[in-house]
Amino acid sequence: MFELENSRSGVETLKYNNRYIHSKYNPMKEAEQFAQGNKELINKEVVVLYGLGLGYHVESIHNLLLEGSILYVFEGNPQLITYCKKVNPKVFEYDNVKIIDYDNKFFYKKFSDVLNDVDDIIVHKPSLETIYKSNEILYNLINDFHIIKQQHESQPEMILQAEDNLKANKHRNTKNILEFINSKNDVNKIYVITASGPSLDYDLNLLKANQKKFHILAVGSALRTLVDNGIKPDCVVIIDPREIVKKQFEKIDCSNIPLCFDGKASRWAVQIHNGQKYIFNDDLEDDIIIRTSGTVAVAAMDIAIKCKAEKIILLGQDLAFIGEKSHTNTFEKTYGFKDSYRSNLKNKYVKGVDGRLVKTTQGYITFKNKIESLIRNNNNVEFINCSHGAFIEGAKHIEFYKVIDKVK
To answer: Which of 22, 42, 245, 354 has the smallest set of CB atoms within 10 Å of its CB?
Structure first.
């Protein structure tokens, strides 16, 4: 599978499945070009690289680091670590280079932590391709990071909108999210996160009858569904910067439903909400950071985790299509147009909660991976997925009525 051979320049190069991980002509020159091509990301205090290879590009990046900067190198293929130690051991000796291999039991925790310190990462794609089949979780994690980054870069107006939102939201009369978290100090540590997938409609009657047994955190798009069915969530969570988010609150009395919102979330929605507001991630030396990972479900789950939840139940977190639908029955009432999401996108397939394949999209797969990453990093919390769509790794998959039977 791996083969070492001499390049034409004399230094060793490496092949994986007959594809070169480094140039077969001049690996050192190629490494210098790789580093120069990523110079904007290298000129930072913290630099993150996925993919060790034989370390030639690590040397080149090291030579360009600013004084006092640190380079984190993550590698998910143990064989590459072995080959690099044999061919190029000096990269393991640099004081300002930290190489974290997959055998490190804190690999994902370290990776997650440093991702919060950077806007983007450098990826050595030939190294990444060596884990395509052997480590699907890590492969998807890195690809998803870039997908989200590319989506942001392709929508510069949304970036500007988010920055304008932050400026406006910081000057509103709001409380810090820490106050909301500190208010959830009772003995009930069972939380329900309601997303707006179509299967939420199936469990509304049960949730209404048993709502006092839980803390209910609703994502914004699920709010109208709950309110219309006599369910009062403990809070509603938004992170989306777009103006259309305000429609989630139009003609709804939220005076007794707190809003927990990202600093860059829709300023129009924050303004129209008429209840107590709690801001997070507003860049004002936050006492606490709420993870979002580009999806409001992760933000709601992380708020529950910060509230010291012992058990988190997911409702409507389908991440797939059920029939022709991607959202609950109130979608059209909320936004004013039909739920035609599925017909506008190329379908993919993932394993469903019943073991059969279900239709989904790359966007939903990305969100699924982000949720699974949060679950992996919080093994002290029991996650129960009562949704009817995609299978979520790390969660138990149980029908909601069976969960209700066990809750006093």
So the answer is: 354
